UniProtKB/TrEMBL annotation:
Cell compartment(s), UniProt: Cell membrane
GO molecular function: branched-chain amino acid transmembrane transporter activity
One of the Pfam families matching this protein, by short name: BPD_transp_2
Annotated Gene Ontology cellular component terms: plasma membrane
Protein name: Branched-chain amino acid ABC transporter permease
Signal sequence, renumbered to the chain: none
Membrane topology label: Multi-pass membrane protein
Record has Transmembrane as a keyword: yes
Disordered: annotated segments: 1-20
InterPro entries tied to this protein: ABC_transp_permease, LivM-like
PANTHER family listed in its UniProt record: ABC TRANSPORTER ATP-BINDING PROTEIN (PTHR30482:SF17), HIGH-AFFINITY BRANCHED-CHAIN AMINO ACID TRANSPORT SYSTEM PERMEASE (PTHR30482)
Keyword terms of this UniProt record: Cell membrane, Membrane, Transmembrane, Transmembrane helix
Taxonomic path: Bacteria, Pseudomonadati, Pseudomonadota, Alphaproteobacteria, Hyphomicrobiales
Length: 336
């Protein structure tokens, strides 16, 4: 042995591995975002504009759906063009159960999550055997299959959709008829989902998922089975999107196959990219930016998607990492 060689440290003397905490300032950004959302009803009351509460509720619903997509897109590099199918399955679970006299939101949520999870498990087990553009195309195909299946169900409105007689009940009460109660119900689920996904990403499971994203071959070489981890992540993402569908049905009091179209899946991807992939906070911010841009640009022209496309091109050219990445660079530069 060389004289200057240092013995390997025993496990108990090795420095503790720092847990994954995401990008710098992520915790602060999350705290500010959720604090602002919690206080938003007060702002709506001060401005005497109840419609702001409706907009904020819709933003959080799509923020939940986009955040679920970020788990597989931002952390797993799985570009799914069929993610809106889970959103539609969750919404149709509410409508179909309501038609048959089951209007309790807890029962509807359980059925929606179960149905979305089973669909994700079945389609994911097939889709994840492909990679790259083939994965994109097969998820698109499954999403369109779900879309046309609902179009063909004339008993539940077919292509015209179906209106809900009323919002879901909670323990026999009509609490969700109040926009304020619906807002806080969505806010609570969004916050719990964020904390749950943050714990998942920071866990060993999340590290394997990110490792598979970065180098699948290396993860296989050290003994991990990427397929199983990706499938579990795919099912979790589908379940959360299904839950978002439950709230979307209640917020709109209407359900249509358009909820699960490939265009809606594309909008969810735009929200994730716009806000910042692999951040969890970014997709929520992206949902805020996308829906506000949609509302603002639609006032000038019915071709508002053209303006949105220009914004996305500029963002891709000058702000890599989306809004979250831009904010991190700005705050980092300010600290220096």
């Amino acid at each position: 042995m060389r004289a200057d060689a240092r013995p390997l440290a025993s496990p108990q003397h090795q420095p503790a591995r720092r847990p994954y905490v995401g990008r710098p300032g992520a915790a602060t950004a999350a705290g500010l975002l959720f604090s602002g959302l919690a206080l938003f009803p007060l702002l709506a009351h001060m401005l005497d504009d109840p419609f702001l509460l409706v907009i904020a509720t819709r933003v959080m619903i799509f923020g939940l759906a986009a955040m679920s997509l970020d788990l597989i897109l931002g952390y797993g590099a799985l570009v799914s063009f069929g993610h809106a199918a889970f959103l539609g399955i969750g919404a149709y679970a509410v409508a179909i159960l309501a038609v048959h006299g089951i209007d309790d939101v807890l029962i509807q949520a359980v059925v929606a999550i179960a149905a979305s999870s089973l669909f994700a498990l079945a389609t994911g087990a097939i889709s994840l055997r492909t990679r790259g553009v083939y994965f994109i195309m097969i998820t698109l195909a499954f999403g369109q299959m779900a879309y046309f299946f609902m179009v063909s169900l004339s008993a539940y409105g077919g292509d015209d959709g179906i209106s809900l007689p009323s919002r879901s009940t909670l323990f026999g009460t009509d609490l969700l008829e109040s926009d304020l109660m619906l807002f806080y119900a969505v806010f609570l689920c969004l916050a719990v989902a964020f904390l749950a996904l943050r714990a998942i990403v920071a866990s060993r499971f999340g590290r394997v998922l990110r490792g598979t994203r970065d180098n699948r071959t290396r993860m296989e070489a050290i003994g991990f089975a990427p397929f199983a981890y990706q499938l579990i992540a795919y099912v979790i993402a589908g379940a959360l999107a299904g839950l978002a569908g439950v709230f979307l049905a209640n917020q709109a009091e209407f359900v249509a196959p358009a909820f699960m179209s490939w265009q809606r899946s594309g909008e969810l991807i735009v929200m994730v990219v716009l806000g910042g992939m692999g951040t969890l906070v970014g997709p929520i911010v992206g949902a805020v930016a996308f829906l506000l841009l949609e509302d603002w640009l639609a006032r000038f022209s019915e071709h508002w998607r053209l303006g949105l496309g220009i914004v996305l091109v500029l963002l891709a050219l000058f702000s890599r990492g989306g809004i979250a990445g831009f904010a991190a660079r700005v705050t980092g530069g300010a600290r220096r």
